[in-house]
Amino acid sequence: MKISIVVTQEEHFKFAQEICDTIESSALLRGTGIAKRTPEYIQKKMANGDAMIALADGKFAGFCYIESWQHGKFVAHSGLIVHPDYRSLGLAKKIKSKVFDYSLKRYPDAKIFGITTGLAVMKINSDLGYKPVPFSELTTDPSFWSGCKTCTNYEILKSKENKMCLCTGMLYDPKEKQKDPPRHPFNEAVLKRLKKIKQALFLGKILSFGFLS
């Protein structure tokens, strides 16, 4: 099976609805919040060349798009998704890496950031050199945060004045000297504990943490 990852064009408009449906169904399956996008919005990104799609024998296999904020000062990768038929192949990491390299060329002066609750995405970001940061280091553009309104966790974000949520903020600054391996290696156990703490604080759940003794 040959899978190609390419910059999108108008010929890929036909996959927009399937991409939106796959993103939404994946979020529901994981029980996580997500900022919904319409097929029209995805098509706009495709037409502008701000997205990459993975195709397997002409079929949709994966997708990710780019958003820029504050006149290109910040760039975010959104909608990273792999079709269920092509999971467990390492495709998400390949797509993310391609979009990451493409962003560095297309927006060379921009800081690349993301917010996510997904440990798999955090791992990929960490491998690329992102570091966990407070939301105060991310874009202040209100249009970015308004995109979270369709997320199930938006009321939490709103109550904290866009300063924190269940998501973890991650940032890559191209002006910083990068190390190999990354300066901030991924630690799944720590991030899982952090997620539980946030759930307890923000959702009012009474949880018992074995590491708090």
UniProtKB/TrEMBL annotation:
UniProt xrefs under InterPro entries: Acyl_CoA_acyltransferase, GNAT_dom
Pfam families linked to this entry: Acetyltransf_1
Source taxon at top rank: Bacteria
Domain N-acetyltransferase, residue spans: 11-151
Protein name: GNAT family N-acetyltransferase
